[in-house]
Design brief:
The complex is a heterodimer of chains A (343) and B (504). Chain A has helices at 4-15, 39-44, 65-78, 94-100, 130-133, 158-165, 208-225, 240-243, 248-261, and strands at 33-34, 49-50, 54-58, 83-87, 107-111, 124-125, 230-234, 264-269, 278-289, 299-309, 330-332, 335-336. Chain A is an alpha/beta fold and 343 residues long. In chain A, the strands form 2 sheets. In chain A, strands 3, 4, 5, 7, 8, 9, 10, 11 and 12 form a 9-stranded mixed beta sheet that branches. A two-stranded antiparallel ribbon of chain A has the order 1-2. Chain B is an alpha+beta fold. In chain B, a hairpin with an 8-residue loop joins strand 13 and strand 14. The termini of chain B are far apart. The model of chain B has no long low-confidence stretch (mean pLDDT 87). The chains are: A alpha/beta (343), B alpha+beta (504). The interface between A and B is large, with 90 and 74 residues.
Chain lengths: 343, 504
């Protein structure tokens, strides 16, 4: 009696040259992922961005990297986890993060390169001269409003006041009317003074490399401390030459640390810099602006392509002669502004 | 009706001025130390440690006499540190009974503790005395404890105990027998009384107690009756309790001004250890610590450190204080340190099996302090939105790990976000029919494809603040095909165009 296992062994060994381990189901490795909250992209990424790995979102300015990262953080903070945003160029906007749904109480924001002389919001103080604010002196008289003790004197000087009010040049004089010669009175207008102490001279943020170094050290410290489920290193406004000057060993270190602490590291860059340390390389192309409305800017339509994804598993272990069906690796979605309303 | 019996414990610390000063200075313990009292030329020794006594130094010696010994450490008497140590000891005694009486003398600490009825709580008096002694020893003070049903008997015995037996419990009814071997010096006699008793050949309390009462009173007055009762251990006592206050405070003066922060940390560690011990004795932990450094030249430098959770981890406190003082160094050399701590409840954190992984609070504090040292004080934290239409409508608050569920709703649709440029970048814009047609930004020319706006923003009408500006949302394309969706602001007051944000 030949057992089923023996038959299977025989079939497999006969087919070994063509189809290795034909009848043995492939061992599945479950790699945890976290959803980005953008359905089109989650489908392409088979669930979302990897947990415990470095993902890189590469694209030029206005390609939708930031909104994608914020959307991912919104999902993470919703689950009660804590995230960090290391802001190399100090460009993070808390208002739009809150609009996307990021719980700001669970987001640690590290701003790099902000120098001691803080940039004050440019606001000016305007105040009326004192004479307009002082209440007029109380008029004497029986009726309170007039200028004399008797009602008949109330209208005294009214005509002069009215003609003074109506600018004489604006009205052509009626022919028979006696003209008062008006001497143009020199009016002194006090210049409106703006308080200047609020507007501190803008301190330029420090050199890109200094900011980069601060960001890398902060990221190191955060990874050492552990407990952050997602750490975004935002180098999106940094020219590619600075990001690519970071030694590859740094990214490798981050990869190991993220594996250990099971936190997702997101790099927002203009040019891929982490190379093989990144498990996922997502390339975003310049987004097309939406033109739904003629009066307001409504949003952008980002377009992403999975440029590289490590550890993708084949559907089957049969090496086909034909080219196997390829997965879709591009996604496009609409990011609308908060004020744009639903279409 | 049950008759309550009085039981008193007496805590006695000899050479208190020296002990109070050396408590926070473990480095001086192996050296002969004396404490000097009085004005500069006529200083004399008021207290000394065992090492100094063994070398032959004595109380009452002058400075010159002290200097004849090899390597003496002369310290100045500090009433503040004595008061602080006394408060610590009283508070420690207060942990065993709410009724504590302070009977301190000039050069010794002495307190009576009413321990009647504490048997169920702290065990028999021997055990209580042993525990009390252990607690006091941990505080850095060597003391002796005696227990008796008569407080005066306990006090007299405590003064007469040798250093080798720091603990003695007088059994009920054995007071007179126990006290009989003690010398008369434990009784605070006047010189005249000492002389008279010397002439009579009375040297111990036992001899005094054996004298007939009437004849003694006839010769030495009513005062002698009290002395006789004292020596028999029968003098009644009216207990006057004090209420020990609980303030976590330690202070130390440095011998010489210290410039380097690291050398201060050792002393801070010892002081923190004491504070933590005292807080722990009350099942509390430290919520915040305020360091007040007295500087050379009279100024003070105060810093407060408050971690997210109250903690009793000494290393963590030292690390936090170090990072804080490094970030805010004092302007001059340090001559004195005072630590004041606020007690907080010990943290009880309920960890769940399925709760998300969060940063550990104490480690996060250190991490944040380190990051603060890297990027700057106000640049780490969480953003809190403010209710205004002004630009930069947020403030940054210190980050703490929130508990509970997140209540912010996520938007069901994908939203675009902005990248704020801080500071605003200048752009030169060319207008046609009062609308932008092309502009130069970062040395690149962009042709405007769509211009939305202007949206006028002004100040709050209820405030004198004014920020007159026009906002334009521009969709522009460079000649090389690069797309730019940006928000440009025109400063109306100065007619200046600036790039405020990029839609990304």
């Amino acid at each position: 009696m030949v057992s089923a296992a023996t038959i299977r062994m025989q079939v497999e060994s006969a087919l070994a040259r063509k189809i290795p381990s034909a009848l043995t189901p492939q061992a599945k490795m479950v790699r945890p992922v976290a959803a980005t909250g953008i359905k089109a992209l989650d489908d392409v990424l088979r669930g979302g961005l990897p947990i415990g790995a470095v993902s890189e979102l590469v694209g030029p300015e206005c390609s939708g990297r930031t909104s994608l990262a914020l959307s991912f953080l919104a999902q993470v903070t919703q689950a009660g986890k804590v995230c960090a945003w290391i802001d190399v160029s100090n460009t993070f906007d808390p208002l739009s993060a809150a609009a996307i749904g990021v719980d700001l109480a669970r987001l640690l924001w590290v701003r790099c390169g902000v120098q001691a002389g803080r940039v004050e919001p440019t606001s000016r103080h305007f105040s009326l001269p004192e004479k307009y604010l002082a209440p007029p002196s109380i008029k004497k008289g029986l009726h309170g409003g007039g200028f004399g003790p008797h009602p008949r004197t109330e209208a005294n000087g009214l005509s002069t006041a009215v003609s003074g009010l109506l600018h004489p040049q604006a009205f052509a004089p009626r022919c028979a009317e006696p003209q008062r010669s008006i001497r143009p009175k020199q009016q002194t207008v006090e210049p409106v003074r703006y308080a200047t102490e609020r507007t501190v001279p803008v301190a330029r943020s420090s050199k890109p490399w200094t900011r980069m170094e601060q960001a890398l050290r902060s990221a190191d410290l955060l990874l050492q401390g552990g407990g952050f489920s997602a750490i975004v290193l935002d180098m999106g406004s940094l020219a590619p030459e600075f990001a690519s000057r970071v030694p590859l060993a740094t990214w490798h270190r981050y990869r190991l640390a993220s594996e250990r602490t099971q936190s997702s590291i997101l790099l927002l860059t203009q040019h891929p810099c982490a190379k093989s340390s990144a498990e996922l390389l997502l390339r975003l192309y310049p987004a097309a602006p939406l033109a739904d409305e003629t009066t307001v800017f409504t949003g952008i339509q980002p377009h992403a392509e999975v440029a590289r994804q490590r550890f993708t598993q084949n559907e089957s272990n049969v090496v086909s002669i034909r080219k196997p069906p390829q997965r879709v690796n591009t996604a496009s979605w609409q990011s609308r502004m908060t004020w744009a309303g639903r279409r | 009706m049950t008759q309550t019996t009085e039981v008193y414990a007496c805590l006695y610390a000899k050479e208190f001025p020296a002990q109070a000063l050396l408590r926070l200075r473990p480095d001086l313990h192996p050296k002969p130390c004396v404490v000097l009292e009085g004005k500069a030329p006529t200083q004399h020794v008021c207290s000394l440690n065992t090492k100094a006594r063994l070398l032959g130094m004595e109380r009452g010696m002058t400075r010159v006499e002290v200097d004849t010994f090899p390597e003496p450490v002369a310290l100045l008497r500090s009433p503040q540190s004595e008061a602080a140590t006394k408060a610590v000891l009283l508070e420690c005694a207060g942990a065993f009974s709410p009724r504590v009486e302070d009977r301190s003398e000039a050069n010794a600490f002495l307190c009576g503790i009413d321990i009647a009825g504490t048997k169920n709580l702290f065990g028999p008096p021997e055990m209580l005395a042993r525990n009390l002694l252990q607690r006091v020893r941990v505080l850095g003070i060597s003391a002796s404890v005696t227990v008796s049903t008569n407080l005066h008997a306990a006090v007299s015995l405590a003064k007469g105990l040798s250093r080798k037996t720091p603990l003695h419990v007088i059994a009920t009814g054995r007071e007179a027998a126990t006290l009989s071997v003690l010398p008369l010096s434990v009784l605070d006699l006047t010189e005249k009384q000492v002389e008279t008793f010397g002439l009579w050949g009375i040297h111990t309390l036992g001899m005094l107690a054996a004298l007939p009462e009437k004849e003694l009173v006839a010769r030495m007055g009513q005062e002698s009756r009290r002395l006789r009762q004292l020596s028999q251990g029968e003098l009644p006592h009216l207990f006057q309790p004090v209420e020990p206050t609980f303030t976590l405070e330690e202070r130390a003066e440095l011998d010489s001004p210290v410039e380097i922060l690291e050398s201060l940390l050792f002393g801070l560690g010892v002081m923190l250890e004491q504070l933590i011990l005292r807080a722990k004795a009350r099942i509390l932990s430290l919520a915040s610590v305020t360091v007040t450094l007295t500087l050379d030249g009279g100024g003070t430098h105060t810093r407060t450190v408050r971690p997210a959770l109250p903690t009793t981890d000494k290393q963590l406190w030292i690390k936090l204080l170090h990072l804080d003082l490094e970030a805010h160094p004092p302007s001059a050399a340090i001559v004195g340190v005072m630590l004041h701590a606020e007690p907080g409840s010990t943290t009880k954190m309920q960890l769940g099996l399925f709760s998300p992984q969060l940063p550990e609070a104490s480690r996060l504090d250190v991490t944040l302090a380190r990051i603060r040292a890297v990027v700057g004080e106000d640049c780490v934290g969480r953003a809190v939105l403010q209710d205004t239409h002004a630009a930069e409508a947020f403030r940054v608050e210190p980050f703490t790990v929130p508990t509970g569920e997140s209540v912010v709703p996520t938007s069901p649709h994908s939203r675009a976000s902005m990248r704020q440029l801080r500071p605003l970048e200048t752009a030169s814009v060319t207008l046609q029919h009062a609308r932008p047609t092309y502009f130069y930004f970062r040395e690149k020319r962009y042709n405007v494809e769509h211009a939305y706006g202007p949206w006028v923003v002004s100040g709050d009408w209820w405030n004198p603040t004014l920020w007159g500006a026009e906002q334009w949302d521009l969709v522009a394309r460079a000649q090389d095909g690069a797309m730019l969706c940006c928000c440009m602001m025109r400063d109306v007051l100065q007619n200046r165009w600036q790039m405020a944000a990029l839609y990304d």
